[in-house]
Amino acid sequence: MTAEATPGGTLIIFAREPVAGQVKTRLIPALGGEGAAQLYRRLLGIALRAGAATPGARRRLWCAGTPADGGECARLAAAHGFTWHPQPEGDLGARMAAALADALVTADRAVLIGSDCPDYSPAYLSAAFAALDDHDAVLGPAADGGYVLIGLRRPAPALFADIHWSTCAVQTETRTALRRIGLTWTELPTLRDLDRPEDLADFGHWLDTDRHLD
Q: How do strand 147-152 and strand 107-113 relate by DSSP bridges?
């Protein structure tokens, strides 16, 4: 946090413009391009609603693949009280490090989540912010070996370097990096992402086409 930063947390959601064929690509064989995009909109809506209901948090939606005017991501951000930001170039780690560092210029803590988890809740997000009272970092493990949430009290670009993203090694490699750079951390309960066709057996109710998307 810089000298100009003020107390309080910033929540960052990482997302993609929900274009058929470009989101939830591992689910396209099971759902088709349009079906996968529709499911992604529902998951993004869950994250946005959880964030909007988290007390005291500033809210930012960082999107990849958006048109110049922000597209659907910008509309959803405005509808839920988020500011909209285009994701920069680079791999996932570089983009997350940049978004967290940007938030920590004006906040004393920042929490970043994705848009693939059906189980985000205001209580879960609030617990992440509270954990940063006593720790440098907080991690929300994912059942597949990645994570659904990461939070920091200060920028830590080294935490996101040399990670094998989108593999089951992410969680272990991140813990190793936390130890290597000397950050204290705590972990929240493990949640599940909805990423692969086999996940649909447990989350099939999200295929209900009558659900509200926003």
A: antiparallel
CA angle, 93 then 17 then 138, to 5°: 35
- Reduced to 3 states (helix: H, G, I; strand: E, B; else coil), residue 207 is helix
The edge-to-edge listing of strands for the beta sheet with 83-86 is 83-86, 58-64, 6-16, 107-113, 147-152, 137-141, 185-187
Domains and CATH numbers, the chain: 6-201 (3.90.550.10)
Task: Record the pTM.
Answer: 0.92
Residue 51 sits at φ, ψ, to 5 deg, of: -65, -40
Q: Region 119-123: what's the mean pLDDT?
A: 96
- Summarised one tens digit per residue, pLDDT across range 186-207 is 999 999 998 888 888 877 665 5
Closest to 122 in 3D by CA, of 79, 70, 80, 65: 80
pLDDT digits (tens, 9 = 90+) for 132-169: 999 999 999 999 999 999 999 999 999 999 999 999 99
β-pair partners for 113: 13, 149
Cβ proximity of 159 and 174 under 8 Å: yes
How far is 148 from 125, CA to CA, in rounded Å? 11
Query: In this structure, what DSSP letter does residue 153 have?
Result: S
